[in-house]
Queue: 2 jobs
Job 1
Amino acid sequence: MTKKRLIPRLLQLVLIIIGVYFGFILLFDVALHQIIPKSLLTMYMLFVVAGTAMVFTFTEEGAQELVGPIKALVEDPSKKMIRNVVFVIVPLLAGYYTYTSMLPSFEAPMELRTIHPAPPSKFKAFGKSYNLTTLQNPYRKFEKEDPAKFKGLVKEGGDVYIKNCQYCHGDKLDGNGPYASGLNPTPLNFQDVGTIAQLQESFLFWRISTGGPGLPQEAAPWISAMPVWQDYLTEDEIWKVILFLYNYTGRAPRSWANE
Amino acid sequence: MNNRRLGKIMSPVNKLALLTFCTALFMAGSAAAKPGTAAKGKEIYDKRCTWCHGADGAGDGAAKDRLNPPPRDFTSGNYKIRTSAFDDMVPTDDDVFRMIRDGMPNTAMPSWSSLLSEQDMWDLVAYVKSFAKYDKPPAKLVEYGTQIKSSAESIEKGKKLFEEGDRCVECHGKAGKGSASKRLKGDAGERTWPRNLTKPWIFRGSNDPKDIYTRISTGIAGTEMPSFADPKSKKKLTEEERWHVANYVASLAKGKDKTVNAENTVVKADKVEGELPSTVEDERWEKTSPTTFYLVPQIIGGERFFTPSDDTITVRAMYNDKTVAMLLEWDDRTKSIPGDDAAEKIADAPIAEDGVAVQLPVEIPKEMQKPYFGMGDATHPVNIWHWKSGTKDAGETVNLLNSKGFKEIEKRDAAGVGLKAKSSYVDGTWKVLITRPLTTSSADKDIQFSEGRFIPIAFAAWDGSNSEKGSKHTMTTWYWLLLKPATGSKPLITALIVAGLFLGGLLWWARSAKSAA
């Protein structure tokens, strides 16, 4: 014989499923700020529902106890009142769900973004051709050889940055400049460990000098607002601004020597 | 509202946020106890702040000429956001700390709390104050009296005071949008724009009534915003009156239409049976759902532009079986009419017409690739519908351009494809209605609209009183236009069938259970 439980088995089942659902939401959406796509969540929940139902109906007795209240609702004449209420609510819910899921959705199409497109081995800028595999920042050597001169170069790079780049990439280099929110995709955050710290200076030189229009064919969705800086800056200015980016964020560029 | 009720209506997340907020407030208060060291502040300043504010704090860093408002000149001793009495220029340490921690919204000054520690920011406070040789706290602070809570009655009183004798209206305009009747200057000689009070997110010092009260009381140093607590002022207000005005100003921020919602990137055109609205005032526009986008200055091609005055554009759209109509709305403080004396006086010379443009791909992309957002590219041409406000002698115009990048532009006949525009300018807001037939006879040159497809769309705007002309303008990147297909009755009918099936199933179950018993 089943003993009287504090929470009926059916309610337990429902509570567990609801608990897991909100657990997902709380963990991903709220705590980690990584919103789970609805389709993925639906799939997870399908497993959760199936799994929990399996555990709850593992023994004959357990299964009986689980469906007991439902059977009683339909069969027990003394529950007529609740039965009528349930018989109205369930079809209404089913109808409502069908209606809302059939309404056309007007969500904007998804555009996945390639963050670090594979660079070409060669590219053209300033009227000449550069070999990306051998290209180096001509000023980097002064970091060790002549720190005072290097400091001056960083300062010059900073002046270039503040006059040209901060509007989007921000005073703090965090990709959150005054006009960042007007752009899609949003400007790159150089403070983030996953950006310039993962790249060689030559890659930056390529991205800065040729901008959004210089992205290779596979770099979908081709909507970067990055200007073509070779139109506005000199080669020297670009190398100096690269020094500044690393210096300000305290990051080091990747190089063949360190690999 | 008592606390228990508050607890009930607040979600746990809100509670957590409130708790964090209170802790932050508490910490901000207690942190004032640890004074900063100017020498340490100098180190941080030299690394983080010199770029704009200059090595000697004179506001003359490299960025100076490309920022409006320009970076603060600390040697002037003027601090815009302070809580010391109107005749005491010295800010409190908390005032300076707050500007560093929270930044100055809608300017290049960011909130530094994500990069600097609290101690770093206090050290900066000490160093920054030394530029104006401020070594003592202010002698007097703003007096608040008893705060008057906002109410319909208080707002009404505030409105009267706001308008009375042109007190605030003179600069902020009747609708509070800062539609100027005067040309204003800052202490560095720069053009300053009166605050658009209907957009609370651009207030430098927040639009909480207490903050507004403080601004009204102290004035804004280095600008033409005066103190209304100054007994010598003809427009002086008592403490009580200032609370009413503060409540009124806070109430101006009620409309959500011009708030950008980052999730909402689609202009949804409703389908209309019969005629489309033929004026910007048509009441049916109110029923459509607006979509608002940020406008950013054009810095990608040709002559660049760094000091915009227009900041957002709001778009509504409708269509019928023949035509699509778009209502473009944006706040612009000046109606720029070349040749008009009053308009020329307010404008930065040379004055040009105001303008707005809609950009659409000639061919709706089938895949993800769109034309380059800056006027298209060699293989993906765009249509540009360019409206201009007109001069003293000539009326408004609408031009049709086809372009493949900003160097290859073909001017076409707008009337030939049925492109029309009509506008109104009221209290600092332009509204332009643009219509075009869904299809034209030149499908290789004009976009052919079709229902239910996501069509890339971008916008641009020109404030002719702010030296904006040609490539100097504000713009958006690509967003979407969707001609919403009529839903029809299919979902409703299906839903009814499903509900019926469920009900039938349940009844059948109950019946068979009964007969079994």
Job 2
Amino acid sequence: MPVLVLDELCIEQGERVFIEGPSGSGKSTLLSLLSGVVVPQQGTLHVLGQQLEQLNGIQRDHFRAHHVGYIFQLFNLIPYLSVMDNVMLPCRFSKIRHVRALQRSSTLEIEAQRLLGQLDIAGKLWHFPVTTLSVGQQQRVAAARALMGAPELLIADEPTSSLDGNRRKAFLRLLFDECEQMGSTVVFVSHDVSLEKQFDRTIHLAAINRASTQAVWERS
Amino acid sequence: MGAIITVPILRLAWKSLLNRWVTVGLTLFSIALSVMLLMGVERLRVEARESFANTLSGTDLIAGARTGGVQLLLYSVFRLGHATNNISWESYLDIAAQKSVAWTVPISLGDSHRGYRVLGTTAEYFKHYRYAVNEHLAFDQGQSFSDLYDAVLGAEVAKKLGYELGEAIIIAHGASDVSFARHDDKPFKVVGVLKRTGTPVDRTVHVSLEAIEAIHIDWQNGAPLPGLSTSAEQARSKDLTPKAITAVLMGLKSKILTFKMQRFINDYKEEPLTAILPGVALSELWSVIGIAENALLIISAFVVIVGLFGMLTVLLASLNERRREMAILRSVGARPGHIFGLIMGETAALTLGGISLGLGLLYGLLFIARPMIEAHYGIHVPIGGLTHYELLLLGIVMLAGFVVGALPAYRAYRLSLADGLSMRI
């Protein structure tokens, strides 16, 4: 029984897309598809010119390492690494992102510090254990990590749901500024519709997901 | 899975361990203790065997009345059990006069002093008895016996009973010290104390063969003859040539003659005798008591297994709370193989750390306990490098650690495949 059935969904490169839908509408599945964790049972999936369903698991892991930045809803950071080490983590698994980070700054540390500065994380926090940070600070560190090495695709899974209204706006503004500079595509999932006007386009997943419509029909 | 153990993964493993230092420290400590026990038992085992084999050296043959080889060794060298029969003095003289015989030390057993065996012998004993690698007996105080009623004590006898030179001691008849079977009419004087050897010599009271004869003048079949009483002074004037001895230690002029001489004694016409090669009998005896030693090693091997299972428990228990961590790693591009490598790296660090700490503890303990072990048991434990066998044992522990670690590593690998980036918390 598929949880996500889409006739077609196209997101342009550099676009900022807001994906909205109630729980069970297939948001997580869509993100798993886009990040190459799972492949579609039927049909094709092109991301950044790659046909993902034709890659094997390890190739898709490499694809994700090189091209995707991912922000979770909560608990984004490795608890035993410092703020700096967390931010530099993607470059440890991807040569490409390592090289791209070095194109922007002379060392990984300087690039990480630049991103943390952009996202308003004070310098005194850089070498703190991540567990001493507030939730808002943690989410901004997570954003810095996702942006490290300028991935072409940034996926955010309700990253602002634990922040209050003002902080949400500030967080988004910082995120967009940085993505614009890098030319990254942003796929942002949330059920908080108050955010949608800050995006180029909103996709109402429940409306286009035929699997959930079927389920709703069957239930009623 | 390719190169799963990469430098960043090892760095991650290291930091993750540091982050959980309390449980990690305890796990490390339990592995270290078990490794220390294993190595300590192994070292003591080897040294006990060495020390056992070193009880007697330089003696080519031991002869006694016809009996089993191990029995003869037990009573003549280890002072355990009793001889069932004796060698007549004439046979002894005949054997001692053989051309191939370089030296002989006759010994006569049967009496005791406060739980320690009394050995009747000649001054030759102190000259020819050797232990370990050709160590001669040496006097800590005093000298060998010169008077009929002189006694030389082993180191332990002197220390435990608090005897000093010049003190008088009473010898009891038989191995048990009971008041009605004491040779209390003929007290002995302590004239010498031997240095510690770590052999049964330390637990022996040495007197001359003539003295053994003297104290038994009025005795027959293990009891004093009623009505007879020869005083210590009167005994001096009597013929004190022994009628029989218990056994004889002998050295030959050439090792090549050993088997010939052994056959000569075993086929001795006048009375049934047995001759043994001490080295052969010692290893025969060790093969019997060595079972206990192996049991000890097996127990400590189990302790190591328990230690490793402790590590398994800790690693498995932590996996569930680390699923979030695994998902984060996957999101930044870690492959499931990396996750496997991370847990394996932690296991390797724990096992290696446990082994190193265990060895450190062992050497520390050896350094502290060495003088005590030597003083109490006469076992000299050298603080040397690791032997091949010990390295092999450590290699097995390391391998077992990897095998044990592969289990949680594989589980983490499966979980990270199943969870992907979404894990419910």
